[in-house]
Design a protein that fits this description.
Elements: E1 5-8, H1 18-26, E2 28-32, H2 41-47, E3 53-56, H3 63-68, E4 74-77, H4 87-92, E5 96-98, H5 105-121, H6 123-131, E6 147-151, H7 155-166, E7 170-174, E8 186-187, H8 191-197, E9 200-203, H9 217-222, E10 227-231, H10 240-249, E11 252-257, E12 275-277, H11 286-307
Parallel strand pairs: 1-2, 1-3, 3-4, 4-5, 6-7, 6-9, 7-8, 9-10, 10-11, 11-12
Helix pairs in contact: 1-11, 5-7
Length: 309
């Protein structure tokens, strides 16, 4: 293992944490991203020179980057999504790609609930108005008694379902890969069917082929008026122009977004008082990050061992 060299290209990795201590104890670290921002293709290509493994975030591991990284054998992603990695190019190069699917579940589920509550209770708008000396009440809504439509019933979607169930929501879901959830939960055969019954829609699906949005103008047109929409999964799942129109027309009463098609996001949605937004930080709790970082390091070490057999 001594000859393996690792780059840490993710923008946020605790330089003094237990995962970094273990990484430096097992491998030679040739690069650490200390800029606190997502690397570009060119920067990533430079960082990967000579590296056999990488601790990765959401940097663009494109075919061009992977072709330039001639020594790379393992990409260990801190997180779940893989839409920033060209998996076909990685496969052609026999590069192993791993994720940390367990650690972020509770953190992302709680963040989803936090966004939903902030939207339903108008909390950011109340705070802004209070700072301006206004204290008049605004229309708000209960979650109890509402139908929560969950798109994607994997680990995170299932946990969100449990939390919303505990708050008194009826749970409906759409996921072609899942045959059955809890007996009291209602499985829908299509997104259209889900949209027609849901008071809340929350997205927990992987990115679609070609980054095709799951929620666009057609699905929004099927939604019940006043629906609340939350996305903590992938920005590409949601057509942002269709969302803006839905908010303007009142079909969507409010939205909570942690992810956007292009990040960091600086678009017109931020001007909407019905939007609560966070900058792709749903998994960023101290506990979750420590667990994710350790899982990523363990996966990297194991995969590098396997790749040398």
């Amino acid at each position: 293992m001594g000859q393996d060299t690792v780059a840490v290209t993710i923008r946020s990795f605790d330089p003094e944490g237990p995962a970094m201590v273990k990484l430096r104890g097992e491998l030679s670290v040739c690069y650490v991203n200390r800029d606190g921002r997502r690397l570009s293709e060119e920067e990533l290509s430079r960082a990967l020179r000579g590296a056999t493994g990488v601790i990765a975030g959401t940097e663009p591991f494109t075919s061009r980057v992977l072709e330039a990284a001639r020594d790379l054998r393992v990409i260990s992603r801190v997180g779940v999504g893989l839409d920033s990695v060209d998996l076909e190019a990685a496969s052609r190069r026999d590069i192993i790609v791993t994720t940390t699917p367990i650690a972020p579940v509770q953190a992302v589920a709680e963040h989803t609930l936090a966004l939903l509550l902030a939207v339903a209770k108008r909390i950011p708008l109340y705070q802004e108005r209070l700072r301006q000396g206004e204290d008049a009440p605004l229309p708000a809504t209960l979650l109890a008694g509402k139908t929560a439509g969950i798109v994607g019933m994997g680990r995170i979607g299932s946990r969100v379902g449990e939390l919303l169930d505990a708050l008194g929501c009826r749970i409906a879901y759409f996921d072609p890969a899942v045959d059955a959830g809890r007996p009291s939960w209602s499985r829908k055969g299509s997104l259209e069917e889900l949209a027609e019954v849901a008071d809340i829609i929350t997205l927990h699906a992987p990115a679609q082929p070609g980054n095709r949005p799951l929620i666009g103008r057609e699905i929004i047109s099927r939604c019940r008026r006043g629906v609340l929409l939350v996305n903590t999964a992938r920005g590409s799942l949601l057509d942002e122009e269709a969302l803006a129109r839905g908010l303007e027309q009142g079909v969507i009463a409010g939205a909570g977004l942690d992810v956007f098609a292009r990040e960091p996001y600086h678009g017109p949605l931020l001007r909407s008082p019905q939007l609560v937004a966070t900058p792709h930080v749903a998994s960023s709790t101290t506990e979750s990050r420590q667990q994710m970082e350790m899982e990523a390091v363990d996966s990297l070490i194991d995969a590098l061992k396997r790749s040398r057999r």
